[in-house]
Amino acid sequence: MKFFIDTANLADIREAQDMGILDGVTTNPSLMAKEGITGKDNVMRHYKQICDIVEGDVSAEVIGTTFDEMVREGEELAELDDNIVVKIPMTRDGVKALKYFSEKGIRTNCTLIFSAGQALLAAKAGASYVSPFVGRLDDISTDGVELIEQIVTIYRNYGYTTEVLAASIRHPMHVIQCAEIGADVMTGPLSVMLALLNHPLTDIGLAKFLADHKKASSM
Ligand code: E4P
Fold this sequence. Notes:
It comes from Fibrella rubiginis. The chain is an alpha/beta fold. It has helices at residues 10-19, 29-34, 40-53, 67-80, 92-104, 116-124, 134-139, 144-158, 172-180, 190-195, 200-217; strands at 2-6, 24-26, 57-61, 84-89, 108-113, 129-132, 163-166, 185-188.
């Protein structure tokens, strides 16, 4: 399973990269705004900085909502770095833009996926990734992991090469459940990756090993 970090925070990206577990980055306009990145030049510079830290795909989302705007923005983003993946919202114009980019060999991530039908459309239009939002579905009492399972099954049935990128991951069990059912990628914050480290028996075991070592050394 590939691990993407879902943030525009450079320190968090560096930390995940230094741990050696990072395969890519996803951002969105809210995450960019949270870091105070505004204005086209700053946004482009920030994406470039992210690409310089990570050896892997970096999803950069278009702001435009019409086909022409998405194409213009997406082409500029794709020129920034070979690792840029153009993130396109699941709308009618978005589907057209996915098809356009796939024919041009520009990789895409179709975002805001909340149903299997949307995921099927994105795959048919040639999206490189689809991003079903697990946590946001859970927030409205709908099983987000079940949607991932449905999409994985549908893609396997027809041999679609679009990768299932489980997004809006909120806790370690989301990661485990998505891994069990074969999601290709998960994207979540650094805190979720760090939470995967923890087990009380590991802490107790390590404390005992060190105490025994200390006792033996003082004999
Ligand atoms: C996907 O790429 C989105 O950036 C993200 O995962 C949304 O997560 P949220 O629901 O925690 O905002």
